[in-house]
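Hello support,

Our group uses your service weekly, and this is the first time we've seen a run hang past the timeout. The protein is GyrI-like domain-containing protein. I'm not sure whether the cause is the sequence or the server load. Input pasted verbatim:
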Amino acid sequence: MSNDLLPIGRFARLCRLSVKQLRHYDDLGLLAPAWIDPASGYRYYRPDQARDALSIGLLRALDVPLPVVARVLSGDAAQALKEARDRIEDDLDRRRRGLRLLDRVLAEGLPEARVTIVREPARRVRVAREAATPSTIPGATSACVRRVLAGGVPQGALIGLFPLDMTDEFDVRVALEAPDGDDLLPGGPFAVATHTGPYDQIPLTVYGVLAWIGDHGHAPGGPVREVYLDDPAATDPGRLRTQVMIRLEDA
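Update from on-call engineer: The timeout came from a worker crash unrelated to the input. Re-ran successfully.
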């Protein structure tokens, strides 16, 4: 044992970490002690390990996940921290959308939807898809719209397709009605309501349609369809109209 080694308690105070945290980081392989007493199991650290320990504490205080911290310590700092920042920005966007929804619920109460039942024909479509999480739906949808419209001016309806059951990861799809499309959107009976307002508030109308379906004893089937009736480039966000359609599996 070298005389310049610090016992875990003194090292923890130097780095503003707890002994429990240091033990946890050792267990994860993130910051191993310089020496462990084979008799007592007591951990000792070199003073020059303080910079890594302080870096871990700083990054964790900034909500940087431990796997990203490990990449930073291994030398991949720039890319790892950029990805962590992007994730935090996505989370902030999601929370801002949630606040806007909450403000509307506070002002108007839980949403009620004016629902009608329509029998939808099967439609030939071109489809673009993108992997998404609940926080990245807007970006994934925009990417799908760009790809599906790459062929020129749309002649048919533009339809967003979203899973009924939101998992950690899923595919977002956007379909463009086209006679030469390779995919077929099945027809059948649908509960339909029109949402008026920004796209990020469509979940309120989805809630209203699902509540109506439950109240009337039906069984919903996915995916949830959003038929975009207006051009967002030429329409005020508060006046955008979107048809929300959910298939009635039992009808």
